[in-house]
Amino acid sequence: METGFDHIDELIAKVLAGEASHEESAALTTWKQMSSENEHYYQESERIFNAVNSLTNKYEVNTDAAWQNLNKRLDQGGAKVIPFYRSPVVLRAAAGLAILIVLTVVSKWLLNDESIEPLVFKSNAKTEQTILPDGSKVFMNKHSEIAYSTNDKGERNVSLKGEAFFEVKHDEKKPFVIQVNEVMIKDIGTAFNVKAVPENNTVEVVVESGEVQFYTSANAGLSLVKGEKAIYEKNTGRFTKVLPTPTENTVSYKSKQFEFKATLLKEVIEQLNAVYPTKIVLQDKSLESMRLSVLFDNEAPENIIEIIADTFDLETEKTDSTVILKPKKQLN
User: Fold this and answer.
1) Best CA proximity match to 180, nearest among 150, 208, 201
2) Residue 297: how many CB atoms within 10 A of its CB?
3) Given CA atoms 264, 268, 274, 280 in this order, what sign does their dihedral have?
4) Smallest Cα–Cα separation from 141: which of 154, 160, 157?
5) What beta strand segments (E) does the chain contain?
6) How many other C-beta atoms can be found within 10 angstroms of the C-beta atom of residue 260?
């Protein structure tokens, strides 16, 4: 979240409560536009604010009656409540305290109510980054989905469909576990990538830093540390450690860096299509066996396609979101 604004929570609260000035509303709009993280933070604040309103509307509190009852009880004991709360400053402080109490109650209620739906984040035709309520960062490949929830012990649970890179905010007292059907990945203070495409027979985990436990309820699985990769086969229930290679480009969807060393053009196209919205098609089967050695560092997809075409003396044909690579027509 961008930190260029002080007291952002106070500003958000004033806007949501309808008490912000024109200048304050404009300032919040500017802050939200600074990053997608800021926009997401505001949306989560708005969701909690609406939940509070819903709850307080359901359970109305008569504060005047409460003060009168308190006065009566104190009168019986020979004491008197001095009405200092009439002061605007104190009134605002009391309002702030009331909001704090309500938020505390509602937060506890939300965390302990099993009927509350988990937070769901989706990416469609492009990659998306989000920050979970616990501060962990998630970068999702396109067409992926995660659902985040916590239980009454504060344990954090994430279900995943697709592929995502996790930078977990580690907390030993609040485990972070990712689940893909029967297989689980438990954080032990780390950053790692999980590929769990539903139609594939495998779930892949690559650890960038730290350590994870890769297991099922019936199999203790494997412990993975920095630089290690493992594959789980759904049909056999078997875990296998494999040696990752740079040309696999595991997190290229996040870094937009691709390294190819004598890689089959078919595999190059498959990796690019898994990341970019533009679909590349090889018109001729004979092109699939050609090999490419190149390093792409955050290149625009149209530049990548042009480089490939120039390298193999191909021409391109564009149709909507598809680019066809084909041999150039021979001149008679």
Assistant:
1) 201
2) 9
3) negative
4) 160
5) 119-122, 128-131, 137-140, 145-150, 156-167, 176-180, 183-187, 191-196, 202-209, 211-216, 219-225, 229-233, 238-242, 257-264, 279-282, 291-297, 314-319, 322-327
6) 21
**Residue 10 carries which DSSP code?**
H
Class of domain 119-244: mainly beta
Q: Please, which residues have CB within 8 angstroms of residue 138's CB and are 6 or more apart in sequence?
A: 121, 129, 130, 131, 132, 146, 164, 165, 166, 167
For residue range 74-88, list pLDDT tens digits in order. Answer: 455 544 444 444 444
CA distance 14 to 247: 51
DSSP for 39-57, please give it: HHHHHHHHHHHHHHHHHHH
Extended strands (E) in 181-305: 183-187, 191-196, 202-209, 211-216, 219-225, 229-233, 238-242, 257-264, 279-282, 291-297
Token pair in block for residue 270: 């498959």
Q: Specify whether the CB–CB gap between 103 and 48 falls below 8 A.
A: yes
Residue 107 pLDDT > 70, yes or no? no
- Alpha-carbon distance of 282 to 322, in angstroms, equals 11
Q: How confident is the model over 151-179, as a mean pLDDT?
A: 92
Going by CATH, does the domain composed of 248-327 fall within 3.40.50.880?
no
Distances (CA, A) of 26 to 8, 9, 20, 29: 13, 15, 10, 5
* pLDDT tens column, 35-70: 777 888 888 778 777 766 655 555 454 555 555 555
CA of residue 45 relative to chain centroid, distance: 16
Q: Considering the chain, tell me which residue range(s) the CATH 2.60.120.1440 domain(s) occupy.
A: 119-244
Facing residues of 120 across strands? 147
* Cβ contact 196:223 at 8 Å: no
Confidence of residue 17 (pLDDT cuts 50, 70, 90): confident
Answer for the pair 34, 40: CB distance below 8 angstroms, yes or no. no
Residue extent(s) of CATH 3.55.50.30 domains in the chain: 248-327
Residue 305 · residue 323 · CB < 8 Å: yes
